[in-house]
Specification:
heterodimer, A: Na+/H+ antiporter like fold, Rossmann fold, 4% strand, B: alpha/beta, 6-stranded parallel β-sheet, 6 strands
Amino acid sequence: MYGQGFFYQAFVYLAAAVIAVPIAKRLGLGSVLGYLIAGMVIGPFGLGLIGEEGQDVMHFAEFGVVMMLFVIGLELRPTLLWRMRGPILGVGGLQVGITTVALTAVGLAVGLPWQTAVAIGMTLALSSTAIVLQTLNEKGLMQTDGGQSSFAVLLFQDIAVIPMLALMPLLAVSGGESDASAHGADAAKHAPTWVEGLPAWEQTLVVLLAVAAIVVAGRYLMRPVFRMIAATRLRELFTATALLLVIAIALLMTQVGLSPALGTFVAGVVLANSEYRHELESEIDPFKGLLLAVFFIAVGASVDFQLIQSEPQLILGIVALLMAIKFVILFALGRAFRMGLDQNFLFAFSLAQSGEFAFVLFSFASQNRVISEDITAPLIAAVAVTMALTPVLMLLNEKLVQPRFGTRERSEREPDQIETDSAVIIAGFGRFGSIVGRFLRANGIQPTVLEYDSDRVELLRKLGLQVYYGDASRKDLLEAAGAEKAHLLVVALEDHERALAIVETAQKHFPNLTILARAAGRPEAYELLDCGVEHVYRETLDTSLRTGVDVLRLLGRRAYPGHRAALMFRRHDEESVRDLGKMRHDRKAYFSEARERIQSLEELLLSEVEGPDEERDAGWDTESLREEFGDSR
Amino acid sequence: MPLPRRSAPCHFGAATHPNRDPSLKSVLILFAHPALQKSRVNRVLIEGVRELPGVTFHDLYEAYPDFDIDVPREQGLLLDHDVIVFQHPFFWYSTPALLKEWQDLVLQHGWAYGSEGKALRGKTFLSAITTGGREVAYQREGHNRFTITELLAPIEQTARLCEMEVLPPFVAHGTLGMKDDEIARHAADWSRIVEALRDERIDLEAARSQTRLNASLDSVVREGGR
């Protein structure tokens, strides 16, 4: 089955992804878990569609992680880094430090030499940037407090890898003599490197010099190069240059015996302030996404079920102990940094695994004779299992832990106030909902507010608002918020999918509620209208029209006609959304109708300016009066 | 609020505050025309008066296109002036809608009228209107069956209830067939009246005997300084 060439492998990987991921998404498992499962299924321990070369593929696909770190670096402008310094250094530093100490202690307890124990402790303290960020992004949790803290910790870990890699040679159990043979053993980096045979401190020096070279080149060399390439206006040339940059850095890093991911990360940070940042990001992004997918599949395929089967207690023991230690430390840190309980659970469950850095660091460590192969093998197997378990844990957290603790916390805080008989429920108290809520309060209406971000809840509570934490798409929470007695439900969430879920729940269980829903634009409005929501509000319609009216005024037009033109425009636009929404599934009819409407609107607006024969203001017209009475003496 | 309409009465040329000369009367023209862009007569009529020193020209539809009238500001303007003018086309024997809204909101009980409401006492009031129909139409036997004086009774009584001195109206009749030179003559008359009001050159006795102020202007306006 194996070795039937590149196309066969590509076919297997892509087919697995295309089949598994939609199913996983449909089941609510998320894409990462889908990829991992796909990998397990096609891997040597599943269907065996891919064999041991899965390891090679993983090495190849690790390049996705390299690219991801480049992109992360691009997003990590020094100023942003500076603003996040508190959580990064505080939470991140403590997480890495305490976890390293705890895991080292475990290593020493089972009788490992201290150098080996420290190397293992450092390595396993790191989490999986790839899996965590991908999963958080997909669930839309990046902006929550827990998501942000996770990101901060991962950033610190990304940075912490640099000194770890620099430290690794210094931890060598035996002398420099063993280094040379260790390099040869590493399959991924089989070419002889520049640093071969150098003593440990010189290797460290070379590494630092290489990083410095990247910083200097990134700052002074890359921008003119990109300017030149951009001037050719050939998009594919820019793509090629971006790829070349990443690959060149990866090669250089490999030559000095350092993780390519680190080099590209540093290059990313250096380029984060350049004007080509967004282009670079969008050029690299598709490659990154595809390679990460392959990477996740390869991780799934590399879960060594044979090793697990032969030594189940050892492997599963390592997994359980590792995740328990990491979880407890993360949770305690969350507490110490005053995270809400639900955010703390998210934070601790997200980061409780060890990550792909472990593969890099372990191979680097065995290169440097810090850890022997017979120790790294079960550890690598365990790391793969923790990575595969992460999406599962996050799912459990979402489905089992959060509802229980989220709800309990809410009812602990306010056992009776949620019983208030408010006529209005507002779901979502962000930019949109908060204005609605403030307006209602200003007019003596106390709405019941449901908000999904618990930290925002905390803040709004402090400001004296009646805000409750919870997912308003859950029937029990809506019920608790008084949906049976309320008259109106304002769905003001930014997240359209969640908004639709709330609408669905409300319509199913509380037909007494009149729903008023926020829509980002036309497509969202169509869907809400399809659901039978009568009152749909496109976020920017009124503001844009107000801007337009002011433009007319500042151009010297009369205010009142402008005001009325805006009212007419809005009415016309609302009508067209309703009419077009009905026929939008028929593309042809939709476009011809849309064209017609734009035209008729234009005519209407033009007649407003140019001609008197137009219904709306006909009452103020004297033309016909003049004709009838004007000339009769 | 990008357009600071509340901060000053006239961001869009709606009102220019008079250079107060204490020896002169100050005139507030409350102008209401919802479709000035279609107007022939009013557009010319206001040209002559909107920039006059001592006259505040307040274009209501420009200031409140959304009908959101700033009552304290309007009351402040009333207090600042001695002569109050409603200038508007005569729509359905009444004012345009915004000027009616203005009366409803600004002339509050306890401020403009009632036992406590003395804010407007002693000020001078007049209407300045344009009508499509000719003067003959506004007669008992004419098309409109009532005289202008009769039809303006609600506004007149509103002013009287606020204890203002009411002058006969300025009326430009027959705008439907009005020639340009006629319009110009009306505009000159109207400017002359406003200036005379400001300079206290109106012969009040003579004025009260007229049905409209511009019927025989020379008998009403004293020429020369006062």
